[in-house]
Amino acid sequence: MKLVVNPGKKLATINKNIYGHFSEHLGRCIYEGLYVGEDSEIENIGGIRVDVLEALKKIKLPVLRWPGGCFADEYHWKDGIGPKENRKKMINTHWGGVVEDNSFGTHEFMRLCELIGCEPYINGNVGSGTVQEMSEWVEYMTFDGLSPMAQLREENGHKEPWAVKYFGVGNENWGCGGNMRPEYYADLYRRFSTYVRNYGDNKVYKIACGANNFDYNWTDVVMKIAGRFMDGLSLHYYTVPGESWQNKGSATVFSDEDYYTTLKKTLLMEEILTKHSSIMDKYDPDKRVGLLVDEWGTWYDVEEGTNPGFLYQQNTMRDALVAGINLNIFNKHADRVQMANIAQLVNVLQAIILTEGEKMILTPTYHVFDMFASHQDNTLLESQVFNKMVGTEDNQIPNVVESASVNEEGQIIITLCHTDLSTDIMMDIELLDTQVQSVTGQYVSGASSAHNTFENPDLVVKEEVKEFKILGNHIEVAMAPCSVLQLTISPKE
Length: 493
Prior knowledge:
Strand content: 25-35%
Structural class: alpha/beta
Helix content: 10-25%
Largest sheet: 10 strands, mixed
Mean pLDDT: 97
Distance between the termini: 27 Å
Shape: globular
Low-confidence stretches: none
Strand order of the largest sheet: 23-22-26-20-19-16-1-21-25-24
Radius of gyration: 22 Å
């Protein structure tokens, strides 16, 4: 199998925020997953789990979206500030009908981001909120000086303002965020975003609610009416292998046909990005407005015996391939895609971490993010793989999906996803006009349904590549079936 990389053809910068994540008040993502409270016997810093925190720091998590999702458009931020015993309780009507006690609010989230070292991405409430509420939230977080909200922030224990770059004006307003028409939302966006102000040195990157998967009309209308008022436009696409949302399929028990169906559907991300980008190009030919895929990943039926509203699912090598394929696609669209946020961080949907009490496990998807972090802020390189189609009669997909980049030190990073379930391949990687000095590599592989459990947490782990063959400007490396590989290549000077 042949891959050609052209180090002399440098393309767009791969924004590190493509490797972002999403945390919603949903199931056990926030509570138990990220936040256990200061009185917990689980080691914590201000209620934030230390084991999860350290795992997130390791993968250089760049940006974290909060508080939703659908929850964002029923969240009223003032309920989540001040002494915890005085905070309002509410019913989480979207996700499980459980009581939300608001013990994790603005201060706790900003502290989490500080500890991780990532940028906060705040999602504001358009669906059930007001312009004043959104405006005051931005003031509360970012104003440095004498104002009612800055005084309230100081009374709640944080005198200095926070830096908040990314702010979303609503979420899924075509659905759970208000069932709006694009014309109506676009006008609302223009109104709300006017009052998302820049205070002092804090410059807000304003994000409009974009389309759901194939709704190209939404993108066209919103860009036409409101494009000049936004910095970014969101996009959501979930990979759902089942026949319907009522029968999405199992996360761990599936056939080879199901496996190839899943990957074929996730590969639609390429078509979706291309078509939405083309529409954006009509109104924004200079690509000033970023496309932000701020919800993506697999969505299966919940694990048996769990709350259907908690969206808890296991995570297999099939999901590792989904993650790697999408990240490679995002890299290749780096001229327009400026952020992506997999759903979700812990214990929900395609989570990178699962917890159970004091126990924590890393999923195959986590290991993919760990390997692909080496692409962050690199320059995309021109590359082409000469692959073949594999799969079943009804689901034919390419056997290799790749991307390549170069970092500031001149090292070339290549990531490869081998989708075939049955055949080993030998990759012949040619670097045009570039001699190879040395190469290191790491990979994850296993049966398509292989996954880590609390009883067996290390069934799928990241491993080092032991054997390479370097022949001038060629590298030969073997890839097992159902595997994801990352290479770091040092060229000769």
